[in-house]
Amino acid sequence: MIEVDRRTLLRAALAGSAVATLASCAQPVQSKSAPVAAGSSVDGSKPLEFFNFDGGYGKEWTTMPLDLYRKEFPKADVKLNSGQQLQQQLQPRFIQGDPPDLIENVGMDGATLAAQKQVMDIGRLLDMEAYGQPGVKVRDTLLPGVAEAGRYDGVKYEMPYVFGVGGIWYSKPMMEKHGWEYPKHWDEMLALCAEIKKTTDIAPWTYQGKFPGYLTNPMLMTAYKAAGPDLKKKVDNLEPNAWRDPALIAAAEGYQELAAKGYLLEGSQALSHTQSQTYWAQGKAVFIPCGGWLENELGDIAPKDLGMTMVPAPGMSKDDKAPFETVTGGPGGALIVPAKAKNPQGGIELLRIILSKQCMQNFTKVTKSLTVVKGASDGVELSSANKSMQAVIEAAGTNMFADWSWRLWYKKLLDNSDKAMAALMNREVTPDGWSKQMQNYADETAKDPSIKKFHV
After folding, report:
1. pTM
2. Is 166-329+405-447 in CATH node 3.40.50.10190?
3. Measured between alpha carbons, how far is 11 from 330 in angstroms, rounded to an integer?
4. Rounded to an integer, what distance in angstroms lies between the CA atom of residue 97 and that of residue 99?
5. Which residue ranges make up each domain of the chain?
6. How far apart are CA 352 and CA 354, in angstroms?
7. First to last CA, the chain
Protein backbone atom coordinates (compact mmCIF):
# COMPACT_ATOMS: atom_id res chain seq x y z
CA MET A 1 0.00 0.00 0.00
CA ILE A 2 1.39 3.38 -0.80
CA GLU A 3 2.49 3.37 2.76
CA VAL A 4 0.37 5.86 4.66
CA ASP A 5 -1.89 6.81 1.76
CA ARG A 6 -3.23 3.38 1.19
CA ARG A 7 -5.08 3.44 4.40
CA THR A 8 -7.80 5.10 2.49
CA LEU A 9 -8.42 6.05 5.95
CA LEU A 10 -10.30 9.07 5.51
CA ARG A 11 -9.91 9.13 9.08
CA ALA A 12 -11.50 11.24 11.75
CA ALA A 13 -14.53 10.11 13.58
CA LEU A 14 -17.54 12.11 14.35
CA ALA A 15 -20.52 11.58 16.56
CA GLY A 16 -23.84 13.37 16.28
CA SER A 17 -25.53 15.12 13.40
CA ALA A 18 -22.69 14.92 10.89
CA VAL A 19 -22.52 11.16 11.08
CA ALA A 20 -26.29 10.88 11.04
CA THR A 21 -26.28 12.28 7.53
CA LEU A 22 -24.27 9.25 6.41
CA ALA A 23 -26.70 6.77 7.87
CA SER A 24 -29.34 7.02 5.18
CA CYS A 25 -27.47 4.66 2.86
CA ALA A 26 -26.49 2.17 5.55
CA GLN A 27 -29.20 0.46 7.53
CA PRO A 28 -27.68 -2.01 10.01
CA VAL A 29 -29.46 -5.26 10.70
CA GLN A 30 -31.11 -5.05 14.10
CA SER A 31 -31.37 -8.02 16.43
CA LYS A 32 -33.20 -8.06 19.74
CA SER A 33 -31.42 -11.17 21.02
CA ALA A 34 -28.99 -10.95 23.91
CA PRO A 35 -25.31 -10.31 23.14
CA VAL A 36 -23.07 -13.34 22.63
CA ALA A 37 -20.90 -13.99 25.68
CA ALA A 38 -17.32 -12.95 25.02
CA GLY A 39 -14.02 -14.42 26.13
CA SER A 40 -15.30 -17.92 26.94
CA SER A 41 -13.88 -19.41 23.71
CA VAL A 42 -10.43 -17.90 24.26
CA ASP A 43 -7.60 -20.09 25.54
CA GLY A 44 -6.02 -17.67 27.98
CA SER A 45 -2.77 -19.63 28.09
CA LYS A 46 -2.03 -19.16 24.39
CA PRO A 47 0.37 -16.45 23.18
CA LEU A 48 -1.11 -13.50 21.30
CA GLU A 49 0.52 -11.34 18.64
CA PHE A 50 -0.80 -8.03 17.37
CA PHE A 51 0.90 -6.55 14.31
CA ASN A 52 0.51 -2.77 14.21
CA PHE A 53 1.12 -0.44 11.26
CA ASP A 54 3.61 2.03 12.70
CA GLY A 55 2.60 4.98 10.52
CA GLY A 56 0.52 8.09 11.01
CA TYR A 57 -1.17 6.82 14.17
CA GLY A 58 1.98 5.30 15.69
CA LYS A 59 1.75 2.54 18.28
CA GLU A 60 1.25 4.34 21.59
CA TRP A 61 -2.50 3.81 21.27
CA THR A 62 -2.04 0.01 21.37
CA THR A 63 -0.75 0.01 24.96
CA MET A 64 -4.17 0.23 26.62
CA PRO A 65 -5.92 -2.62 24.76
CA LEU A 66 -2.89 -4.91 25.10
CA ASP A 67 -2.70 -4.22 28.82
CA LEU A 68 -6.43 -4.94 29.17
CA TYR A 69 -5.96 -8.24 27.36
CA ARG A 70 -3.08 -9.13 29.69
CA LYS A 71 -5.28 -8.30 32.65
CA GLU A 72 -8.04 -10.55 31.29
CA PHE A 73 -5.63 -13.39 30.45
CA PRO A 74 -2.59 -13.04 32.77
CA LYS A 75 -1.04 -16.31 31.57
CA ALA A 76 -0.90 -15.18 27.93
CA ASP A 77 2.36 -14.03 26.39
CA VAL A 78 1.15 -10.90 24.58
CA LYS A 79 3.42 -9.38 21.95
CA LEU A 80 3.25 -6.26 19.81
CA ASN A 81 5.15 -6.12 16.55
CA SER A 82 5.12 -3.12 14.21
CA GLY A 83 6.23 -2.16 10.74
CA GLN A 84 5.50 -0.05 7.69
CA GLN A 85 6.00 -2.58 4.88
CA LEU A 86 3.34 -5.11 5.77
CA GLN A 87 3.18 -6.74 2.35
CA GLN A 88 6.87 -7.62 2.49
CA GLN A 89 6.87 -8.41 6.21
CA LEU A 90 3.72 -10.49 6.51
CA GLN A 91 3.12 -12.16 3.15
CA PRO A 92 5.82 -14.79 3.85
CA ARG A 93 4.18 -15.52 7.20
CA PHE A 94 0.80 -16.05 5.54
CA ILE A 95 2.43 -18.47 3.09
CA GLN A 96 4.14 -20.33 5.95
CA GLY A 97 0.88 -20.56 7.91
CA ASP A 98 2.21 -18.43 10.76
CA PRO A 99 0.48 -15.01 10.53
CA PRO A 100 -0.12 -12.77 13.57
CA ASP A 101 -3.41 -13.11 15.45
CA LEU A 102 -4.59 -9.56 14.72
CA ILE A 103 -3.29 -7.15 12.10
CA GLU A 104 -3.79 -3.44 11.54
CA ASN A 105 -3.74 -3.86 7.78
CA VAL A 106 -2.13 -1.08 5.81
CA GLY A 107 -0.53 -2.33 2.64
CA MET A 108 -1.70 -5.90 2.21
CA ASP A 109 -4.24 -6.76 -0.49
CA GLY A 110 -7.40 -7.06 1.60
CA ALA A 111 -9.61 -8.09 -1.32
CA THR A 112 -7.32 -10.98 -2.26
CA LEU A 113 -6.95 -12.08 1.35
CA ALA A 114 -10.75 -12.19 1.60
CA ALA A 115 -11.22 -13.96 -1.74
CA GLN A 116 -8.67 -16.62 -0.75
CA LYS A 117 -10.26 -17.03 2.70
CA GLN A 118 -6.96 -16.14 4.35
CA VAL A 119 -8.80 -13.91 6.83
CA MET A 120 -11.68 -14.82 9.10
CA ASP A 121 -15.29 -13.84 8.81
CA ILE A 122 -15.51 -11.63 11.91
CA GLY A 123 -19.22 -10.87 11.58
CA ARG A 124 -20.00 -12.66 14.84
CA LEU A 125 -18.01 -10.01 16.68
CA LEU A 126 -20.85 -7.58 16.02
CA ASP A 127 -23.20 -9.61 18.21
CA MET A 128 -20.73 -10.09 21.04
CA GLU A 129 -21.10 -8.12 24.23
CA ALA A 130 -19.22 -4.82 24.01
CA TYR A 131 -16.20 -4.75 26.29
CA GLY A 132 -17.02 -2.77 29.42
CA GLN A 133 -20.72 -2.43 28.51
CA PRO A 134 -22.67 -5.40 29.92
CA GLY A 135 -25.77 -6.32 27.95
CA VAL A 136 -24.82 -4.15 24.94
CA LYS A 137 -23.79 -5.60 21.59
CA VAL A 138 -20.68 -4.38 19.80
CA ARG A 139 -22.80 -3.41 16.76
CA ASP A 140 -24.89 -1.09 18.94
CA THR A 141 -21.81 0.85 20.04
CA LEU A 142 -20.72 1.65 16.45
CA LEU A 143 -21.45 4.71 14.36
CA PRO A 144 -23.79 4.31 11.35
CA GLY A 145 -22.31 2.37 8.45
CA VAL A 146 -19.47 0.79 10.42
CA ALA A 147 -21.07 -2.64 10.81
CA GLU A 148 -21.63 -2.73 7.03
CA ALA A 149 -18.11 -1.60 6.11
CA GLY A 150 -15.24 -4.01 5.45
CA ARG A 151 -17.36 -6.58 3.61
CA TYR A 152 -16.58 -8.54 0.47
CA ASP A 153 -19.48 -10.39 -1.16
CA GLY A 154 -21.49 -9.58 1.94
CA VAL A 155 -19.06 -11.18 4.39
CA LYS A 156 -17.37 -8.99 7.01
CA TYR A 157 -13.64 -9.60 6.90
CA GLU A 158 -12.42 -6.19 8.09
CA MET A 159 -13.26 -3.95 11.02
CA PRO A 160 -12.73 -0.21 10.54
CA TYR A 161 -11.53 1.67 13.60
CA VAL A 162 -11.39 5.31 12.52
CA PHE A 163 -13.97 7.49 10.80
CA GLY A 164 -12.83 10.37 8.76
CA VAL A 165 -12.35 12.43 5.67
CA GLY A 166 -9.65 13.23 3.14
CA GLY A 167 -8.88 16.61 1.64
CA ILE A 168 -6.49 19.53 1.25
CA TRP A 169 -4.77 21.20 4.22
CA TYR A 170 -3.67 24.78 4.74
CA SER A 171 -2.68 27.06 7.61
CA LYS A 172 -5.60 29.32 8.44
CA PRO A 173 -3.38 32.08 9.94
CA MET A 174 -1.25 32.08 6.78
CA MET A 175 -4.30 32.37 4.53
CA GLU A 176 -5.75 35.19 6.65
CA LYS A 177 -2.43 37.04 6.83
CA HIS A 178 -2.20 37.24 3.03
CA GLY A 179 -5.91 37.70 2.42
CA TRP A 180 -6.15 34.53 0.37
CA GLU A 181 -9.49 32.78 -0.07
CA TYR A 182 -9.58 29.05 -0.73
CA PRO A 183 -10.85 28.44 -4.30
CA LYS A 184 -13.75 26.16 -5.14
CA HIS A 185 -12.78 25.56 -8.78
CA TRP A 186 -9.53 24.70 -10.51
CA ASP A 187 -9.16 27.83 -12.64
CA GLU A 188 -9.46 29.85 -9.42
CA MET A 189 -6.86 27.58 -7.79
CA LEU A 190 -4.39 28.21 -10.61
CA ALA A 191 -5.04 31.95 -10.36
CA LEU A 192 -4.34 31.88 -6.62
CA CYS A 193 -1.18 29.83 -7.21
CA ALA A 194 0.02 32.48 -9.68
CA GLU A 195 -0.60 35.21 -7.09
CA ILE A 196 1.22 33.26 -4.37
CA LYS A 197 4.21 32.64 -6.61
CA LYS A 198 4.34 36.28 -7.73
CA THR A 199 3.94 37.95 -4.34
CA THR A 200 5.71 35.60 -1.90
CA ASP A 201 8.59 33.16 -1.64
CA ILE A 202 6.16 30.45 -0.52
CA ALA A 203 5.39 27.54 -2.84
CA PRO A 204 1.68 27.18 -3.56
CA TRP A 205 1.71 23.37 -3.25
CA THR A 206 3.72 20.40 -2.11
CA TYR A 207 2.84 16.72 -1.93
CA GLN A 208 4.24 13.36 -0.87
CA GLY A 209 6.01 12.69 -4.18
CA LYS A 210 7.41 9.27 -3.28
CA PHE A 211 3.84 8.17 -2.62
CA PRO A 212 1.89 9.72 -5.52
CA GLY A 213 -1.44 8.36 -4.35
CA TYR A 214 -1.68 11.28 -1.95
CA LEU A 215 -2.15 13.57 -4.96
CA THR A 216 -4.20 11.07 -6.94
CA ASN A 217 -6.93 11.41 -4.30
CA PRO A 218 -7.75 15.09 -4.86
CA MET A 219 -7.25 14.82 -8.63
CA LEU A 220 -9.88 12.08 -8.79
CA MET A 221 -12.19 14.18 -6.64
CA THR A 222 -11.82 17.14 -9.00
CA ALA A 223 -12.77 14.86 -11.89
CA TYR A 224 -15.68 13.38 -9.91
CA LYS A 225 -17.10 16.83 -9.23
CA ALA A 226 -16.88 17.67 -12.91
CA ALA A 227 -18.51 14.47 -14.18
CA GLY A 228 -20.76 13.35 -11.35
CA PRO A 229 -21.31 9.95 -9.66
CA ASP A 230 -21.57 7.96 -12.91
CA LEU A 231 -17.83 8.43 -13.42
CA LYS A 232 -17.02 6.59 -10.21
CA LYS A 233 -19.37 3.75 -11.08
CA LYS A 234 -17.78 3.26 -14.50
CA VAL A 235 -14.23 3.39 -13.16
CA ASP A 236 -14.95 1.09 -10.21
CA ASN A 237 -16.65 -1.45 -12.47
CA LEU A 238 -13.68 -1.50 -14.88
CA GLU A 239 -15.90 -0.47 -17.78
CA PRO A 240 -14.25 -0.02 -21.20
CA ASN A 241 -12.90 3.50 -21.76
CA ALA A 242 -13.91 4.66 -18.27
CA TRP A 243 -10.48 6.27 -17.76
CA ARG A 244 -10.81 8.05 -21.10
CA ASP A 245 -13.56 10.25 -19.68
CA PRO A 246 -12.93 13.94 -20.53
CA ALA A 247 -13.32 14.90 -16.86
CA LEU A 248 -10.38 12.68 -15.86
CA ILE A 249 -8.21 14.04 -18.64
CA ALA A 250 -9.14 17.62 -17.73
CA ALA A 251 -8.32 17.00 -14.06
CA ALA A 252 -4.98 15.49 -15.04
CA GLU A 253 -4.25 18.56 -17.15
CA GLY A 254 -5.07 20.81 -14.23
CA TYR A 255 -2.90 19.03 -11.68
CA GLN A 256 0.00 18.66 -14.09
CA GLU A 257 -0.03 22.44 -14.42
CA LEU A 258 1.10 22.62 -10.79
CA ALA A 259 4.39 21.15 -11.97
CA ALA A 260 4.48 22.83 -15.38
CA LYS A 261 4.00 26.34 -13.99
CA GLY A 262 6.35 25.97 -11.03
CA TYR A 263 3.61 25.91 -8.42
CA LEU A 264 5.12 22.95 -6.55
CA LEU A 265 7.73 23.28 -3.83
CA GLU A 266 10.97 22.46 -5.59
CA GLY A 267 11.74 18.76 -5.46
CA SER A 268 8.28 17.74 -4.26
CA GLN A 269 8.20 14.81 -6.67
CA ALA A 270 11.09 13.21 -4.75
CA LEU A 271 9.90 13.93 -1.20
CA SER A 272 8.66 11.35 1.27
CA HIS A 273 5.44 11.88 3.18
CA THR A 274 7.29 13.04 6.29
CA GLN A 275 9.59 15.41 4.37
CA SER A 276 6.82 17.12 2.42
CA GLN A 277 4.59 17.39 5.50
CA THR A 278 7.44 18.88 7.53
CA TYR A 279 8.17 21.50 4.88
CA TRP A 280 4.47 22.35 4.72
CA ALA A 281 4.27 22.72 8.51
CA GLN A 282 7.29 25.01 8.36
CA GLY A 283 5.40 27.34 6.03
CA LYS A 284 7.33 26.53 2.87
CA ALA A 285 4.12 25.62 0.98
CA VAL A 286 0.49 26.69 1.26
CA PHE A 287 -1.39 23.51 0.32
CA ILE A 288 -0.82 19.79 0.88
CA PRO A 289 -3.14 16.80 0.35
CA CYS A 290 -3.50 14.32 3.21
CA GLY A 291 -5.88 12.37 5.40
CA GLY A 292 -6.91 13.05 8.97
CA TRP A 293 -3.77 11.52 10.48
CA LEU A 294 -1.64 14.49 9.39
CA GLU A 295 -1.74 16.29 12.73
CA ASN A 296 -0.66 13.23 14.69
CA GLU A 297 2.05 12.33 12.20
CA LEU A 298 3.50 15.84 12.39
CA GLY A 299 3.59 15.75 16.18
CA ASP A 300 5.83 18.41 17.70
CA ILE A 301 7.05 19.47 14.25
CA ALA A 302 3.87 21.51 13.81
CA PRO A 303 4.03 25.00 15.35
CA LYS A 304 1.43 25.70 18.02
CA ASP A 305 -0.05 28.49 15.90
CA LEU A 306 -0.16 26.52 12.62
CA GLY A 307 -3.96 26.51 12.58
CA MET A 308 -4.24 23.33 10.53
CA THR A 309 -7.40 23.44 8.42
CA MET A 310 -8.83 20.83 6.06
CA VAL A 311 -11.00 21.68 3.05
CA PRO A 312 -12.38 19.66 0.09
CA ALA A 313 -10.45 19.40 -3.15
CA PRO A 314 -11.52 22.05 -5.68
CA GLY A 315 -13.97 21.15 -8.40
CA MET A 316 -13.26 21.78 -12.05
CA SER A 317 -15.65 24.62 -12.92
CA LYS A 318 -19.01 26.21 -12.23
CA ASP A 319 -20.52 23.55 -14.52
CA ASP A 320 -19.60 20.73 -12.13
CA LYS A 321 -22.21 18.00 -11.63
CA ALA A 322 -21.31 17.38 -7.99
CA PRO A 323 -21.01 20.11 -5.34
CA PHE A 324 -17.73 21.49 -4.09
CA GLU A 325 -18.48 20.06 -0.64
CA THR A 326 -18.24 16.46 -1.93
CA VAL A 327 -15.50 14.48 -0.17
CA THR A 328 -14.37 10.94 0.43
CA GLY A 329 -15.04 9.89 3.98
CA GLY A 330 -16.52 7.34 6.34
CA PRO A 331 -15.34 4.30 8.28
CA GLY A 332 -11.71 3.57 7.53
CA GLY A 333 -8.84 1.32 8.37
CA ALA A 334 -8.89 -2.47 8.51
CA LEU A 335 -8.28 -4.70 11.52
CA ILE A 336 -8.16 -8.31 10.32
CA VAL A 337 -7.87 -11.75 11.93
CA PRO A 338 -5.94 -14.26 9.78
CA ALA A 339 -7.72 -17.59 9.34
CA LYS A 340 -4.52 -19.55 10.02
CA ALA A 341 -3.47 -17.56 13.06
CA LYS A 342 -2.32 -19.60 16.04
CA ASN A 343 -4.79 -17.82 18.31
CA PRO A 344 -7.61 -16.36 16.17
CA GLN A 345 -10.07 -16.36 19.06
CA GLY A 346 -7.60 -14.27 21.01
CA GLY A 347 -7.32 -11.96 18.01
CA ILE A 348 -11.09 -11.47 17.96
CA GLU A 349 -11.09 -10.85 21.71
CA LEU A 350 -8.35 -8.21 21.38
CA LEU A 351 -10.37 -6.63 18.60
CA ARG A 352 -13.41 -6.53 20.89
CA ILE A 353 -11.29 -4.78 23.52
CA ILE A 354 -9.91 -2.28 20.99
CA LEU A 355 -13.48 -1.35 20.05
CA SER A 356 -14.37 -0.55 23.66
CA LYS A 357 -15.33 3.00 24.44
CA GLN A 358 -12.38 3.45 26.80
CA CYS A 359 -9.83 2.25 24.24
CA MET A 360 -11.32 4.29 21.42
CA GLN A 361 -11.43 7.37 23.65
CA ASN A 362 -7.76 6.77 24.39
CA PHE A 363 -7.11 6.42 20.65
CA THR A 364 -8.63 9.86 20.12
CA LYS A 365 -6.53 11.38 22.91
CA VAL A 366 -3.29 9.83 21.67
CA THR A 367 -3.70 10.20 17.90
CA LYS A 368 -5.93 13.29 17.71
CA SER A 369 -8.22 11.28 15.45
CA LEU A 370 -11.78 10.25 16.08
CA THR A 371 -13.05 6.69 15.88
CA VAL A 372 -15.96 4.47 14.85
CA VAL A 373 -17.37 4.10 18.38
CA LYS A 374 -20.24 6.28 19.58
CA GLY A 375 -19.31 8.82 22.21
CA ALA A 376 -15.61 7.97 22.15
CA SER A 377 -14.75 11.64 21.78
CA ASP A 378 -16.78 12.66 24.83
CA GLY A 379 -14.63 14.67 27.17
CA VAL A 380 -11.71 14.85 24.72
CA GLU A 381 -10.59 18.34 23.78
CA LEU A 382 -10.43 18.47 19.99
CA SER A 383 -7.88 20.46 18.03
CA SER A 384 -8.60 23.04 15.34
CA ALA A 385 -7.58 20.42 12.78
CA ASN A 386 -10.21 17.99 14.03
CA LYS A 387 -12.81 20.70 14.20
CA SER A 388 -12.13 21.62 10.58
CA MET A 389 -12.57 17.99 9.55
CA GLN A 390 -15.88 17.87 11.37
CA ALA A 391 -16.93 21.00 9.50
CA VAL A 392 -16.03 19.34 6.20
CA ILE A 393 -18.10 16.26 7.10
CA GLU A 394 -21.06 18.36 8.17
CA ALA A 395 -20.93 20.44 4.98
CA ALA A 396 -20.69 17.32 2.82
CA GLY A 397 -23.78 15.71 4.31
CA THR A 398 -24.89 13.00 1.91
CA ASN A 399 -22.31 14.15 -0.66
CA MET A 400 -19.73 11.80 0.81
CA PHE A 401 -18.56 8.38 -0.32
CA ALA A 402 -16.08 6.02 1.30
CA ASP A 403 -13.49 5.87 -1.48
CA TRP A 404 -13.07 4.79 -5.08
CA SER A 405 -13.74 1.08 -4.76
CA TRP A 406 -11.12 0.04 -7.31
CA ARG A 407 -8.48 1.37 -4.92
CA LEU A 408 -9.66 -1.13 -2.31
CA TRP A 409 -10.40 -4.07 -4.62
CA TYR A 410 -7.47 -4.18 -7.03
CA LYS A 411 -4.03 -3.77 -5.51
CA LYS A 412 -2.10 -4.20 -8.75
CA LEU A 413 -4.20 -1.50 -10.39
CA LEU A 414 -3.60 0.73 -7.37
CA ASP A 415 0.16 0.17 -7.60
CA ASN A 416 0.10 0.92 -11.32
CA SER A 417 -1.89 4.10 -10.70
CA ASP A 418 0.99 5.31 -8.53
CA LYS A 419 3.39 4.80 -11.42
CA ALA A 420 1.08 6.66 -13.79
CA MET A 421 0.61 9.56 -11.35
CA ALA A 422 4.36 9.87 -10.83
CA ALA A 423 4.88 9.99 -14.59
CA LEU A 424 2.17 12.64 -14.92
CA MET A 425 3.66 14.92 -12.27
CA ASN A 426 7.19 14.40 -13.61
CA ARG A 427 5.79 15.45 -16.99
CA GLU A 428 6.95 12.21 -18.56
CA VAL A 429 3.49 11.66 -20.05
CA THR A 430 0.77 14.02 -21.20
CA PRO A 431 -2.58 14.03 -19.42
CA ASP A 432 -4.01 12.14 -22.39
CA GLY A 433 -1.13 9.67 -22.13
CA TRP A 434 -1.83 9.24 -18.42
CA SER A 435 -5.46 8.50 -19.27
CA LYS A 436 -4.42 5.87 -21.81
CA GLN A 437 -2.00 4.30 -19.32
CA MET A 438 -4.71 4.03 -16.67
CA GLN A 439 -7.17 2.54 -19.16
CA ASN A 440 -4.60 -0.06 -20.18
CA TYR A 441 -3.99 -0.96 -16.54
CA ALA A 442 -7.74 -1.20 -15.91
CA ASP A 443 -8.24 -3.37 -19.00
CA GLU A 444 -5.45 -5.70 -17.84
CA THR A 445 -7.20 -6.06 -14.49
CA ALA A 446 -10.58 -6.68 -16.14
CA LYS A 447 -9.16 -9.40 -18.39
CA ASP A 448 -7.08 -11.18 -15.72
CA PRO A 449 -9.03 -14.31 -14.70
CA SER A 450 -6.92 -14.71 -11.56
CA ILE A 451 -8.28 -11.46 -10.09
CA LYS A 452 -11.68 -11.69 -8.44
CA LYS A 453 -13.99 -8.93 -9.69
CA PHE A 454 -16.39 -6.85 -7.66
CA HIS A 455 -19.09 -4.42 -8.76
CA VAL A 456 -20.87 -1.38 -7.39
Report:
1. 0.77
2. no
3. 7
4. 6
5. 3-164+330-401, 166-329+405-447
6. 6
7. 22
